[in-house]
Amino acid sequence: MSQRSDWTLIHAHLHQTLQQRQLLAPSRPVLVAVSGGQDSLCLMKLLLDLQPKWKWQLAIAHCDHRWPADKGLADHIEQVAQSWAIPFYLEIADQVTTSEGAARQWRYQALGKIAQTYQYQYVVTAHTQSDRAETVLYNLIRGTGVDGLQSLTWQRPLVAGVQLVRPLLEVTRRETGEFVEQQHLPVWLDAYNQDLRYARNRIRQEVLPYLKTHFNPRVETALGHTAELLRADVEYLETAARSLREQAMGSMSENEPTTTLKLNRLILRQADLALQRRAIRQFLTIVQPKATNFEQIEAITALIEAPNRSRTSSFPGGASAQVEGDWIIWRNSQGD
Ligand SMILES: Nc1ncnc2c1ncn2[C@@H]1O[C@H](COP(=O)(O)OP(=O)(O)OP(=O)(O)O)[C@@H](O)[C@H]1O
């Protein structure tokens, strides 16, 4: 910041967050994921304003889903990048998808690809405290368990050599809205955000305002704290579960063939249910390519105490698990 008068509370907040949490090291190349909405334009401008202090090499990345409503958006962001004199990278989807989950997956993969190709160590997204509150509620309703409730984290590895960072997790959408207005930033209005057919939008526009009015005006902060506390719990539990799984799998490592993998029931029995479930989920993630669900974890957990020869019904692809004495044996398909 050259002029002190431009320094607002939100600048101070972000600067402090970056220092305390050590999210972005100084003087590094930083790729900012810009969707064109208020949050990412706010983040981009804030990082530009902080740049003289931190000396990053900033750039913008945009992922074009080729959705009809986004026509002209990529050009708009490119112009914004030009007006700020920073590099602009664009990835365009090969296939148009309407699934929110598939679009997100492609986006993160595209961002990772740009970062690796052009050697950016960080990809930064503008998820806010409001996004985090929505995610907590959304995942609570879907039944993801604690892991889903802590899912929007400050940072995580994106691809080899690239860290995904979310520095705005303590800033609300209201604050980013006020900032873009004050700064006259050219926000692209996303018609999709208004569409109440999507669960996320109903949570944003109906559920959270209701909770704010009738229960807690600071509900977003409260949900953010919940996510923060759960994150540490989950990290702890996952580490303990990994060690349980490794013991229960004996000498087998993750790289061994997945045709006949097994778990020792005597070792699993010594652990509490929370760790048994986690160890089994980790085991399933190793042995089957498909996403693991609650019923599958419960079916195998039941085998820890089940009589000899008990077996689960078939998993996708014909795989199943069966008790053989002290062991739960995983078979990828009949006859393996
Ligand atoms: N098309 C895009 N191109 C580049 N970055 C994007 C794009 N869409 C979203 N982002 C980045 O991701 C952030 C979050 O956006 P959004 O909430 O739409 O994503 P999401 O992946 O659906 O979020 P969540 O992970 O909470 O489900 C944005 O602030 C922006 O930084």
Structural description of this entry:
With 336 residues, the protein is α/β, with parallel strands linked by helices. It folds into two domains: 9-215, Rossmann fold, CATH 3.40.50.620; 248-331, Uridine Diphospho-n-acetylenolpyruvylglucosamine Reductase, domain 3 (2-Layer Sandwich), CATH 3.30.465. The chain is built from twelve helices and nine strands. Helix 5 packs across helix 8 (199-214) and helix 11 (273-287) packs across helix 12 (294-302). The longest helix has 30 residues, at 219-248. The chain is elongated, with a radius of gyration of 23 Å. The chain starts with 8 loop residues before the first helix and ends in a 5-residue tail after the last strand. The structure holds adenosine-5'-triphosphate (ATP). Adenosine-5'-triphosphate (ATP) binds next to helix 2, strand 2, helix 4 and helix 5.
Task: Pick out its properties.
elongated; Rossmann fold; Uridine Diphospho-n-acetylenolpyruvylglucosamine Reductase, domain 3; six-stranded mixed β-sheet; 336 residues; 2 domains; binds adenosine-5'-triphosphate; alpha/beta; three-stranded antiparallel β-sheet; single chain
What class do helices, strands and sheet pairing give?
Answer: alpha/beta
CATH superfamily of the largest domain: HUPs
Instruction: Give the second-level CATH assignment, the architecture of the largest domain.
Output: 3-Layer(aba) Sandwich
Strand numbers in spatial order across the main sheet = 3-2-1-4-6-5
Low-confidence stretches: none
Shape assignment: elongated
Report the total helices. 12
The biggest sheet amounts to:
6 strands, mixed
